Amino acid sequence: MSSLQGKHVYLRALEPDDLEFVYRLENDTSVWEVSQTQMPYSMFLIKSYLENAHKDIYEAKQLRLAICKNETFEAIGLIDLFDFDPKNNRAGIGIVIQNPEDRSLGFGKEALELLIAYAKNYLHIHQLFANISVTNLASKTLFTSFGFELIGIKKDWIFSDGDYSDEALYQLIIKK
Known about the structure:
Layout lengths: L8 E5 L5 H8 L5 H4 L7 H9 L5 H4 L2 E7 L5 E11 L4 E8 L9 H15 L5 E7 L3 H8 L4 E12 L2 E11 L3
Parallel strand pairs: 4-5
Antiparallel strand pairs: 1-2, 2-3, 3-4, 5-7, 6-7
Helix pairs in contact: 1-3
Organism: Flavobacterium azooxidireducens
Protein name: GNAT family N-acetyltransferase
InterPro entries: Acyl_CoA_acyltransferase, GNAT_dom
């Protein structure tokens, strides 16, 4: 079994065929708060992004992978390593499952488990961090189930719907 394949999902590089999926996900206003997006992305911009998605994590400082159910090639979500810092062996990590009916079924948990193992075993990452809205109980539960610890609260960090809210910073120190 591949290091990026689990019992129910696998992670794969983005493909040109993912254009419609990424376009829909990036323009879904319900996830803009999580991705800190403020305006829609054009199809042209998403296409350009996908054309450059092949860049090495050491060059791009990020890695975005599609989350797919094992029985299909079609993406159900995305999982990212971002702000990759190879000198200090750390990166941010984020995940989104597009359709609400695919959430809470363990797909995100398995994807996160696969990416943490990949980050440890292949990229030799020492620590991962996640920025999570204090109101996002599902994400807080998911990340803490892997040992991420709350290390701080960024006050009034997110401006959404005319008001400010706090964002929590979670960190996982990966043991060798």
